[in-house]
Design brief:
Double Stranded RNA Binding Domain, 5 helices, 4 strands
């Protein structure tokens, strides 16, 4: 029995590592690109229906993230208004999940501030790129999947702290 549990733990650890690689987690302590932001849009990546039905609905995450930003005094804009802001910045939240053995779910969360940037070698060229990024991985029982929302909120708090530090009055 112990050998079976150890095998399952190894499989789960491998799933977590795979999620880490898939989500491309990058931790950036740099506040480059946050100074002078006049607001951000929020975009939540699609989530598989199985996980949406268990408390990880895109609409719920959208509300959680927008509420946190507004409470911190950060202006949240819609996609149409976003295109009128310099750089068209948006906070992109991605939660990738993989169901493992015995009802365990491995997850990877990525929160990126993405915006238009110009290439140094050719300033006429621009692309969308992350200018701030944080991520996290973990595991949780399928029956407690909605607790992952707390980890998303924690990463949004990190963005808020970086934003506020870069935009001190």
């Amino acid at each position: 029995m112990r050998r079976l549990r150890a095998t399952n733990l190894v499989k789960l650890a491998m799933c977590s590592l795979a999620l880490l690689l898939v989500t491309g987690l990058a931790v950036a302590d740099s506040w480059t690109g946050l100074s002078g932001l006049r607001g951000v849009a929020v975009v939540i990546a699609p989530i598989e229906p199985e996980f949406e039905q268990r408390g990880m609905a895109v609409s719920t995450l959208q509300t959680d993230v927008e509420l946190k930003l507004r409470q911190a005094g950060i202006r949240v804009v819609g996609s149409k208004e976003n295109h009128t802001l310099p750089g068209a910045p948006y906070l992109y939240v991605s939660v990738n999940m993989l169901r493992g053995p015995e009802g365990i779910v491995a997850y990877g969360i990525q929160v990126d501030l993405k915006q238009l940037v110009r290439l140094e070698r050719d300033p006429t060229q621009q692309t969308i790129a992350p200018t701030w990024s944080e991520g996290a991985v973990g595991t949780v029982g399928i029956s407690k999947l909605s607790t992952v929302r707390g980890d998303v909120r924690d990463l949004v708090d990190k963005f808020i702290n970086a934003y506020l530090a870069a935009n001190q009055k």
